[in-house]
Amino acid sequence: MTETIVRRRTQLEVDETSRLSLHAIRSSEATRRRKVEEDPSDIRLAFQRDRDRILHSRAFRRLKHKTQVFVPHVGDHPRTRLTHTLEVGQLARTIARALGLNEDLAEAAALGHDLGHTAFGHTGESVLDEILRGVNHEFSLPENVSSAVGRFKHNYQSLRVVDLFERRYDLPGLNLSDQVREAILKHTSWKVDYPFPVPDPGGLFLDKPCHFEGQAVAVADEIAQQTHDLEDGLRAGSVDLETVEELAVSQRVISEIGSDPYFRNQPWIRQNSLIRGLIRLFVLDVVESSAARIDRFLGRHEISDHESFSGQAREVSQTTVWMSAEVEEFFLELKGFIYAKIINQGPVSRQDWRARKVVTALFGAYWSEPTILPDYLLMRATEELDLPHIRDLPLKRVAATVAERYHSTPGFARLIVDHLAGMSDRFALEEYRTLQLPSPDQDI
């Protein structure tokens, strides 16, 4: 009788090495800010553990109530930040597998890439950044605060979430691998000197391009975003299918399907075929173009094994894993179309305007009256910023302390931003109603 062998970490690492390309990161190469002894009996590899920590985080669960483009509470089918994240994970794994990269690393980074995203989509992100920069038209921070507090960007905030705010252990953060942290940060634009309080820049290689697995996440994010925003816009009636079919990229997809069989179908089947064809076009092009670029890089540097690749890994281009120039033109055409016909139209613009009002009003309320903040945030203000605990002050001293201490401390503005960035749409709207539109029978 054959005995089933349980593959534990050491054997899994051997198996992984045998199937990965020489330009892929090995799980055995994972590094962490806090070094821990790896359990050799574990049945998960390092990046699988990162994935699981992200999946079980509170920030991940909140994504289900955060807007992608269309607010989720007006229908059952618009994408949320959570479904977007899952689609990015699926595309990132597909691209990574086809290129012989580490799928577990790509998946973990994809699942964590938007943990720091605000409620109300990119509008919420823009409002928080405007407030911190002192350019919001409805609320102004003191100049000494706005000049020192830095800015807001969701990829940096995602790093703050996984490094500081999620607490499943005695110490702050999830202690994710540096490779996953780097890919989370670099899934969209970043700068070496961006004014944001990165908790620990170690292991992020801020002056270098991201590794190939992280680049796979970045391009998967772009593809998922544009194709599902188009599908959601079609379903919402923001744009009609016939107009979309006139695009050059759509004509390319239809020609590959075959014009006659495509147009013989019902509109809803044509729509599904078109979205599916767009995803296929972009993903296949990314894989084929990236493979050619990787081969050129390996040949140029005379790399023939993983060890020699590791010595040159940081010399890669940031767009090694990306589309061809031809297909990128199609992609940019689609992106511009989606912005003009879906994002920058009445229904989305109206919800964005309301989102601006909600986020700005909540920040203003917390800033002017910190006593309405949750106790744990006031405790953070005391422990991290050395501010007097408001709950312990005599009533007659509260207003003066807020004006003299809280409003002169840049970290207090950052604390409010951290609180707002973690809110779901639903929580933010309810908080707005509670504070701005109180009614006699409303629970406090």
From TrEMBL:
Domain of life: Bacteria
Record keywords: Hydrolase
GO MF, one annotated term: triphosphoric monoester hydrolase activity
Sequence ranges assigned to domain HD in this UniProt record: 81-226
Keyword Hydrolase: yes
Record InterPro entries: dGTPase, Diverse_Catalytic_Enzymes, dNTPase_2, HD/PDEase_dom, HD_domain, PHydrolase_assoc_dom
Pfam families from the UniProt entry: HD, HD_assoc
Keyword Flavoprotein belongs to the record: no
Family: Belongs to the dGTPase family. Type 2 subfamily.
NCBIfam families: dGTP_triPase
UniProt name for this protein: Deoxyguanosinetriphosphate triphosphohydrolase-like protein
Organism: Candidatus Sulfomarinibacter kjeldsenii
